[in-house]
Amino acid sequence: MAEQNDVPIENKTETTGGHVLQVNVRMQQGEHAGQPLYSNFVSVQGGQGIVIVDFGFLDPQTMHTLNRLVRAGEKIPDTVGARMSCRIALSVEAAHNLAHQLNQLLPKK
């Protein structure tokens, strides 16, 4: 089953005179892209011209234990193990577009 997503792209370039150009892109799933991934933890790192986003999964029991330790005022471990679900390397512009789309989607607190 091929699912398609229409993704608006905002392109701010000098050739458009500083205007925002919006183009709809029809994105089709690749051969292995149909597998759903679940993440309850995200880590973001910057590099030269790219942003690396690691999506991970922390075991719910680990999260429960950490919350219990914090509430009790006990020392929490320096390191907790998580399983990486996916790593994505984005251009700075793509990361900016992602942040913009997430800000539009998520309600402000």
From TrEMBL:
Q: Could you identify this protein by its name?
A: Uncharacterized protein
* Source organism of the structure: Nitrosomonas supralitoralis
